Amino acid sequence: MSELEEVKRETGSKDRFLFGMPRLGTSIILGIEGWAVFTLYTTGYGLNEFQTGFALAMGYLTIAASQFLLGWLSDARYTKFGRRKPYLFIFAPILGISIIFLLLPKLILPDLNDKTALFLWLLIWDILFRASYAVTTPYQAWMAEVFSVNERPKVSQIQNTFNYIGNGIMSLFSLLILTDYVEKLETDINTAIPIIFSLPVIIFGILTIVLFYLVAFFLPTEPKYEIKTNMIENLKRIIQNKNFMLIIFMVGISGLAWTMITNTMLKYTEEALNLGGTDYLIVAVFLLVFIFIFLYLWRRSIDKNGKKPTLLYVFLIAAAFLPITLVGLIPMPSYLIFGIIFIIGIGAILGGWFLFPYIVYADVAEDDEKKTGDLKAGIYTGFPSIILNIFQAAGVFLIGIILEIPFNYNPTPTITPYSIGMVLWGPIASVVLIIAYFYTKKYVTLDFEWEKQIKI
């Protein structure tokens, strides 16, 4: 047994728990960036949807390059801290600081009515945020080096438990605190930043840094093992891995829809469903409860049915559910019940999807190791970002265009008219996921024969 396999065998529940902890911080800040920045800058700060979508798209293109680069570099050089830890030490502080300035432009910008300065601020800090978020690539590459294939669903469940605790915190912050701040901004764009908004943002940034440093200090460094081929040869190798490339395009195609969902769901609940105040609190509670229920159910489905059948279920259920956004066209005295149904459904489908990517990348890296003798976890984790984030950039750019459709609608006099695109994005995302379903069913392999032998 190799030294690397010995480390995998010796890991326990404490290591799995420690490894999952950074996902608490990253899920909070990435969730806010994905859920709320579009709404904050358009509805709150008054930046138009096209400029906001463009700036966020540039952020996605930045992470496409940086995630691949950090995966490549972390594979290439082994230091006294191992391959992965140095990047956590360097990039975690940049990540924590960038989310603070991204959400709090008023700390520096004197007048938020200056839309050119506001656009440049969003563009610069979102690029820095996305570039430093690439720290998750060397961090995630650890999974293949430390945990065996049988442990990875458990590790992913722990990670996603932290993810959804973070998402719960993020959703409470976004639905209750951020939306209240947005309403104040609509009245006076240069209103003073309330401490109930600024203090959590600063805490979230610091928490992200601390959690990465904890795992860097206390998780055992992976053993030094030789990667026999150079990086150019590794790149050629993974490009020649047909199944891996098919998986990447599957993630990219579906990523168009996931990006549309995460960037629009908050704006949809606020503008199309006219929810606010205690309504948001009720919706947030349902979101938290059902996220954990579905996280467990999807993980059990993986254990029972395998990864590919479970992922196909996720695609089908999501495609069937998302046209529900059209219900926003129907006049109702209150959209609260519908809002609860909507947010539960979103939590269920995102909960299923977020279990998959990193499990799959680690499995493919190990599958390649069994054929070549080399474990190239960093490059296998980082390379997909090139394709994935191009698709995500297209998704956020597309949603900016959809929400700028110059046809306004309001189902009741109490709701401010909104673009018809606010209810059309659901069916459009559904079509994308139907395409992803048939593509995955025909071309992609997610369950390997050697897994079955290990489980036996």
Question: How do the helices and strands follow one another from N- to C-terminus?
Answer: HHHHHHHHHHHHHHHHHHEEHH
Report, as a whole number of angstroms, the end-to-end distance: 19 Å
Q: Major beta sheet, specifics?
A: 2 strands, antiparallel
CATH architecture: Up-down Bundle
Mean pLDDT: 82
What's the level 1 CATH class?
Mainly Alpha
Radius of gyration: 22 Å
CATH domain topology: Growth Hormone, Chain: A
Number of helices: 20
Number of structural domains? 1
CATH homologous group name: MFS general substrate transporter like domains
Task: Find the count of extended strands (DSSP E, 2+ residues).
Answer: 2
Strand order of the largest sheet: 1-2
The parts where pLDDT drops under 50 for at least 5 residues are none
Structural class: mainly alpha
Q: Beta fraction of the residues?
A: under 5%
Structural notes for this entry:
The radius of gyration is 22 Å and the shape is globular. It contains 20 helices and 2 strands. The mean pLDDT is 82. The protein has a two-stranded antiparallel ribbon. It has helices at residues 3-10, 13-20, 22-35, 37-44, 49-76, 85-103, 115-133, 136-146, 152-187, 195-218, 231-240, 242-272, 278-305, 307-321, 336-354, 357-372, 377-382, 384-402, 421-443, 449-455, and strands spanning 408-409, 418-419. It has 456 residues and is mainly α. It has one domain (3-455): Up-down Bundle (Growth Hormone, Chain: A), CATH 1.20.1250.20.
What topology emerges from the helices and strands here?
Elements: H1 3-10, H2 13-20, H3 22-35, H4 37-44, H5 49-76, H6 85-103, H7 115-133, H8 136-146, H9 152-187, H10 195-218, H11 231-240, H12 242-272, H13 278-305, H14 307-321, H15 336-354, H16 357-372, H17 377-382, H18 384-402, E1 408-409, E2 418-419, H19 421-443, H20 449-455
Antiparallel strand pairs: 1-2
